[in-house]
Every structure is written in C-alpha cells, then in structure tokens.
Amino acid sequence: MSHSATRQLGRTDIQVPHLTFGGNVFGWTVDKDTSFSLLDALVEKGLWFIDTADVYSRWAPGNQGGESETIIGEWLKKSGKRDRIILATKVGIEMGPGKSGLAPGYIRQAVEDSLRRLQTDYIDLYQAHRDDQDTPLAESLATFDALIKEGKVRAIGASNYSAERLSEALDISDQHGLARYETLQPEYNLYDRQEYESGLEKVAIDNGLGVINYYSLASGFLSGKYRKAEDANKSQRGAKVVEQYLNARGERIIQALDDVAAAHQASPSQVALAWLIARPGITAPIVSATSLPQVDELVKATTLTLSADEIKQLADASRY
Fold it and tell me: Which residues form a coiled coil (predicted)?
C-alpha cells in the first residue's frame, strides 16, 4: 500500500493509512525484539499509523504502565524513523495514585512523561482516553490547545466519549476558539454496532471527525476462530469472547463473513475489516498483530473491495 492509499484524519493536515495499528501489544504480548521487527514491517508495508496510550500495559503482571510507549521510543531512537510514522497516544486512565483524569496540571505532567518515554518532541494525535466528568471540558481543551500552540501535539482526539459529551466538547471548542477534538476512538465492529451507530456516528460525520475504532474484530470473534463452546480455550480471552458473541446472531455474522471471504479468497478477518473501511465516516479501524505473517494479513484487508451487495449481506446478517 503506497502513501496515496491514505485518508485525511478529521479536518487536520494529517494523512493516515486505512488501518491503525494498535500498540497495546508492545511490551505485553510481544517482547522488545519482536516489537521492533513488527514496527519495521509496519513502516515497510504501509501501516505506519501507530496508536498507543500511556497506560499500556499497566494491567499485565509485573508492568506499571508506559511499557508500550517506552518500546516505541527505543525503536524510534534506534531506527530514526520518527518522520515515517504517525504516532497517537492517550492520557487520562489511571497511571498511579493521583495520576488520572484530564485536569490541566495532570495533562501537562502526562504529556511530558509520554514525550520522554516516546523519545520524541511531538505527538501527532493526543487523545483523551476517556471522559473526565470532574474537569470542565473548557479547561481540558484549553490545555490541549496550548500544547498544540507549543508544538508538542499536532492534533487532539477523544476516546470513549458519549455522543452528548462529544457534541458539548465540540461546541465549547467552537465558542472559545480552542483546538477541537478531530478524532473519535469508539468501540465498533460488525457485531457491536448499536452504541456507535445510535448517536456517535452522526456526531462524527456531521463534524467531519476522523473515526479510528477499536475492537475492530470483536476481540478476535470476527476472525472465525471461535465457532463452538470448546473454542473458548483457544486464547486467554476465549471464554469471555465465546460467552459474549457465540449466539444465533454471532453465528449468522460468521456465516456471512465466510461466504464473502470465500468469494474473495480472503479470510473472515479481512472481510470484517474491509466492511469497516467501507463504512461512511470510518477513517482507519484499529487492528493488532503479534507476528509478521499477521501483518501481511492486515495489509491484504486494506486492498479488499467489497461490492454493495456484499456490504448489504454483512449488514443484514448483523442486524439486531
């Protein structure tokens, strides 16, 4: 995929590929050496939009948060490829006692911590990881605006906001002449459609936001690897995936993915991603990989074009 196969990120001057790479794997399910080889391959193969967060992967035993950013920073220093990637990270989820939320002082502290770990002097997309109802939106936005003016951040985005709060934030930016959230990072995939489509989608499209959705493959369910209850033991998250998705509707979706995949000599994962990429308002779904063959699989998804009939077939199968 060449640089021409890109999309504008919101109303910014940033162009990104059709998929975003989820950096939560770095320092969690893949070690440093594997992370470096994955990052090299992502740049090489055209998936150079990397999304991480300060908190990745604090949940893993022995980790304290900052692991993903630290590995990316070490790779940037070693490879010298800062200008070859678009780098997104986030602030707001707890990093320790008193270190959470979107209060101005904390954003200031967190951005310096992220820049230090990432070994860079700017972040392309800095995102509020989740809404902070205790801090006035205007205060957080004024701080983000200042970081943009200082050249530390190019654009800002919101993750896990409700449609109401996102609209309110956009109005405040407009009224006060502040930088606005240019992107939205919601949960969205062929199975989990309700929350995004019932409100957030309209806000995003009406305001020209870039949408980089997470759980694009419904925690792996849409890959087709969980087809019966016994498949729960196929991964650490298998039991949860089977419980959440393996039902009549889930089976209909997998059947439709199988049918469309067969017509294209593609995999169910590639079809599920192609459906998202074709969705109005979606800019670059977030996907992850832990091996080089998986990266090649993702690249193929960006070149898969579904017909209007196939898109309808998938939409019908996933109706509630």
Answer: none
